[in-house]
Structure prediction request, 363 residues.
Amino acid sequence: MTIRVLALVLAVGALAAGAALAGADARKPGAAFMGAATQAMQRDDTQNPAMLWVGDGEALWRSKDGGNGKSCFSCHGDARASMKGVAARYPSFDTHSKRVLDLGQRIGQCRQTRQQAPPWRAESRELLALESHVALQSRGMPIAPPREARLEHAAARGKALFFQRIGQLNLSCAQCHDDNWGKRLAGSTIPQGHAGAYPVYRLEWQDMGSLQRRLRNCMSGVRAELPPYGAQELVDLEAYLAARAKGMAMESPGVRP
Amino acid sequence: MARALVTVPATARRGEVIEIRALIGHAMETGYRPGPDGKVLARDIIRKFTCRYNGEQVFAAELHPAIAANPYLAFFTVATASGTFEFTWEGDKGFSQTETARIAVT
Prediction:
């Protein structure tokens, strides 16, 4: 009898350990699905083309702009200290505008309200440069979406969208990135949908791009109607992706094939 | 905006083979692509890259339309004396950019 109980305890213990192990190992970053050359390109800052944008972003951080002649540096000081871990917490709920904002939108809001400057256009060189510079300061840190009810609501809406079939191909994000990751979609390997490397330099684009550009790219791939940049759906999806990749290391600024 | 990254070791021993890397931001527009209005975009590429080590050319490359945007070049040379590496990119539409990097050879 005691032996059977002991065996049961052992079996339950092994199951729990197995589940914990699976939980720890199951998630892979997008970089794990790239070729060795692209991985090396991302790892080595002297090869990573995104560092060109980081350099520009550093210059923009210190350049004065807008109605009250302030730079980012005037308020925040050196980004290396003040922006550490900031990108890992975005998207976040913004108490000023009472909306969930991603990092690019937050930069735009800071420009409007603090610098009294016009916000940069989505996917503009300036915005991606500053975003890359800020995101670099969180490299290696765990993705840590804040515990905030309204952000969690956005993530829940994003999760619903992730499982929603869309487009003429009638596919949801989950059908590729949950059910078929690791398999091939034409020439490329399907990653698991852990977006910790944005903004990324994508070799196909020969350019830098945000997570919203990537999401719109996937939506166009399934022939769905594209939400405009900054649309609530895209921010909700970003919030879900951050929750999904919670605790994984930031790779920004990444390189993708 | 200044948009080139050159990587040269800060120090080297005399006779050591050193790796040099040069990355520059450039659209490398091929001249074969149509723009949004359907008209072919004019070619705008870097044509020539040269690297001079204390005035002497140690590496040069000709670039062509099939080369991707933001070209990256890596090459090797022998560290002979302390001094300056001068990198020059020249291309269409009068494009010209020069970067320098110093090396101390012991």
Q: What stands out?
A: Chain B touches chain A at residues 1-5, 7, 21, 23-25, 28, 68-70, 72, 74 (CB under 8 Å). Chain B has a mean pLDDT of 94. The beta strands of chain B are 4-7, 11-12, 17-24, 46-53, 56-62, 72-78, 83-91, 96-105. Chain B is about 0% helix and 50% strand.
